[in-house]
Amino acid sequence: MTRNGPVALIFHTAVVIFMLAPLAIVCLVAFTPENTLSLPTNGFSLRWFDAVFHHPDFVQSFWNSLWLAVLSATLAVVLAVPASLAITRWEFPGRGFLNALFLSPLIIPHLVLGVAMLRLFAIVGATGSFGWLVAAHIVIVTPYVMRLLIAAISGFDRSVEQAAFSLGASEATVFRRVTLPMILPGVTGGWLIAFINSFDELTMSIFITSPSTVTLPVRMYMYATESIDPMMAAVSALIIGITAVAVLLLDRVYGLDRILVGQH
């Protein structure tokens, strides 16, 4: 086993500190009793968390983001599973184009996607529709699901499926009892990454939300243009906490190495 030298350890430590320091500062500011963005030097307070839960616009936007992320991630998985199986296992005309099409939102700026979606929704008369907002989020989160699923399916031992077929199992039974359980870590990891990306999406959403479908990131942006106070830090701390809990649960259930790296 190769050991990291002192220079590599110092560099890695510096990178970790650089990434985590802003998050730690935001979480600390959320507990300040003051009316300005400042560290809690005079004790800790939950007043700004209480203010968030008693702010109807933030509460409604939270539920909008939650339902949007759940629906987008779930439908993205439903779409990505058969697409990944087809792209990985079969050769057919347009296979490369289909793969590039599904993954293209990863390289297209969300600003461009937002303007394009806004124009599209205006043409079809769907401006302000929650269903079309879900469709737009599906477009941008599906690539994350597909990348994990393609990796999971590529490393899948098909001899297990062939054994099930030889015993008389139907294709539906093999998929439900063999294939799906084997790629379940990729499905779960893809769903969680899609959920997080949909929940945190701002750049595209700001173009296509209506007053009744404003998401939490858009609400935070709107609030920040009017006033800057520790309530923003409290909302950010809650989002960080929810994301951290979700990742920890996923790590305990399946293991991040198994999902993201492919280790068994």
Automatic annotation (TrEMBL):
One Pfam family this sequence matches: BPD_transp_1
Signal peptide feature range: none
Domain of life: Bacteria
Chain segments annotated as transmembrane: 7-31, 66-88, 100-124, 130-153, 174-196, 231-250
GO annotation, cellular component aspect: plasma membrane
Example of a GO biological process term: transmembrane transport
Membrane topology: Multi-pass membrane protein
Residues annotated as domain ABC transmembrane type-1: 62-250
Alphabetical keyword list: Cell inner membrane, Cell membrane, Membrane, Plasmid, Transmembrane, Transmembrane helix, Transport
Places the protein is found: Cell inner membrane; Cell membrane
Similarity section: Belongs to the binding-protein-dependent transport system permease family.
Protein name: ABC transporter permease
Naturally occurring in which organism (per UniProt): Azospirillum oryzae
